[in-house]
């Protein structure tokens, strides 16, 4: 029996030694794999951090550009609104001129815009009943002074204009309404007005 015990003990010792070697080799391999994976994880971590930082910087730049564009659009809209208000105020100022100056203004429009001196003059309801007759007299006087036939006459019709007048001869009309005159000035002067207002 002692021989079997010795053989068994020897086999057991060899098995333990072999198991120890396998365990040592496995531990070494685990340590090696952990080290490699740790380095990979670190590399991946820093790659992602750099990518995230770059993405954030790009997003911030996009947001800055977008904010700058929105700001410019807003400023432009405000400028356009202020220019439009300036022309609206000009229209209101012309319509609100004191009666003698407004009459003189309309008479000047009629006499300058008349081609034959025999046109019909159309006003809005307020001006027809208020200063219409005075405008016709003053315009005909101006035409006479220029040596042009002074035969302007007030029409029985009115037009839905805010102020000014319309000259009509036959089927041809010349629109001298305040809104049309202001609109013509707007297209010619908007950029100049904006330059003056926002320097």
Describe the overall structure.
There is one protein chain. With 199 residues, the protein is an alpha+beta fold. The protein is built from five helices and four strands. Strands 2-1-3-4 form a four-stranded mixed sheet. The radius of gyration is 47 Å and the shape is rod-shaped. The model has no long low-confidence stretch (mean pLDDT 86).
Provide the gyration radius in Å: 47 Å
Flag low-confidence runs: none
Helical segment count: 5
Strand content: 5-15%
Cα(first) to Cα(last) distance is: 116 Å
- Average the pLDDT over all residues and give the rounded result: 86
The topology string of helices and strands comes to HHEHHEEEH
Strand and helix map with partners:
Layout: H1 2-95, H2 99-113, E1 120-123, H3 125-130, H4 132-145, E2 153-158, E3 164-169, E4 172-177, H5 178-197
Parallel strand pairs: 1-2
Antiparallel strand pairs: 1-3, 3-4
Helix pairs in contact: 1-5, 2-4
TL;DR of this structure?
It is built from five helices and four strands. The chain has helices at residues 2-95, 99-113, 125-130, 132-145, 178-197; strands spanning 120-123, 153-158, 164-169, 172-177.
Top keywords for this entry?
single chain; 199 residues; 5 helices; alpha+beta; 4-stranded mixed β-sheet
